Amino acid sequence: LGDSYTIGTAIGTENSYATLLADSLTHHDSILHIKLDIIAQNGWTTTNLLNALNKENIAGNYNLVSLLIGVNNQFQGRSKTEYRKEFTALLQKAMAYAGGDAGRVMVLSIPDYGVTPYGASNRESIAGGIDEFNAINKEVSDTMNVLYVDITPLSRAAANDPQLVASDKLHFSSEMHKLWMKRMYEPALSTLLP
Fold it and tell me: Domain locations in the chain?
């Protein structure tokens, strides 16, 4: 569940962290098959994702549900109060999709696009805003006892490594998505193994 990062905007879904994680997990001896469902679009805020999920008839008991959302809330200057309310609702939906098991839900922190050429002129302000939204999603995640994977520091490495930025100079490259996937892999594997 997510936004442009989830679908790999500028690099293709096949290079996104979600697809890379599914592919990596299928190489483990104990995991035979992974069915990956992605509900995300470029530009989505928490409101957009909630509206989409309310229209979907998502049935099933997913073994793992990930949620990365909020960068567009920050980018559009939307309120932190709205974000907290809608992020909480999204996390409740994610838990329902995981059969009510908080241990099968993984929240990823919001990457910091202020380190990209697009965000460079406003780097400190963007970083501060991202940190504020991440403080909210971390607090809500901790309260609901879900897995939390902090990928923001990894995203900030792009300030010194242009290979971690996609060709659109706003999103992150497949190399960055590989780093995020590696950060997610062990918690995801532990969740999926009996």
Answer: 4-53+63-192
> Can you give the pLDDT of all 194 residues of the chain as single tens digits?
999 999 999 999 999 999 999 999 988 877 767 889 999 999 999 999 999 999 988 877 899 999 999 999 999 999 999 999 999 999 999 999 999 999 999 999 999 999 999 999 999 999 999 999 999 999 999 999 999 999 999 999 999 999 999 999 999 999 999 999 999 999 999 998 86
CATH 3.40.640.10 for the 4-53+63-192 domain, yes or no: no
- Rounded to two decimals, the pTM is 0.95
Q: Among the residues of 123-173, which ranges form H helices?
A: 123-143, 152-156
Tokens of 181: 């996937």
List, in order, residues 6 or more apart from 3 with CB less than 8 Å away. Answer: 40, 41, 42, 43, 44, 45, 49, 68, 69, 71, 72
